[in-house]
Design brief:
single chain, alpha+beta, Alpha-Beta Plaits, 4-stranded antiparallel beta sheet, 2 helices, 4 strands
Length: 73
């Protein structure tokens, strides 16, 4: 399992959390997705044989939440 962390532009509403967590959580290979509203950070654990960090980043961006930076470990 890999962990990807993304720093987003500031989130404006708590419903953003459900939208991002829900979309990432339904992606094949993602075992956990967590959004921290006040710091606008996303942390996702995923199986890199099924999905790539770039796919996660693109999904977040396509939802309308631009990613400012990312880190994979």
């Amino acid at each position: 399992m890999k962990t990807a962390k993304f720093q987003l532009e500031p989130l404006t509403c708590p419903s953003c959390i459900k939208k991002i967590e829900g979309k990432l959580g339904r992606m094949e290979g993602v075992s956990e997705a967590k959004v921290l509203f006040h710091s606008s950070k996303v942390k996702a654990q995923y199986d890199e044989s099924k999905v790539k960090a770039k796919d996660l980043e693109e999904t977040i961006s396509n939802l309308g939440y631009p990613v400012q930076s990312s880190k994979v470990s």
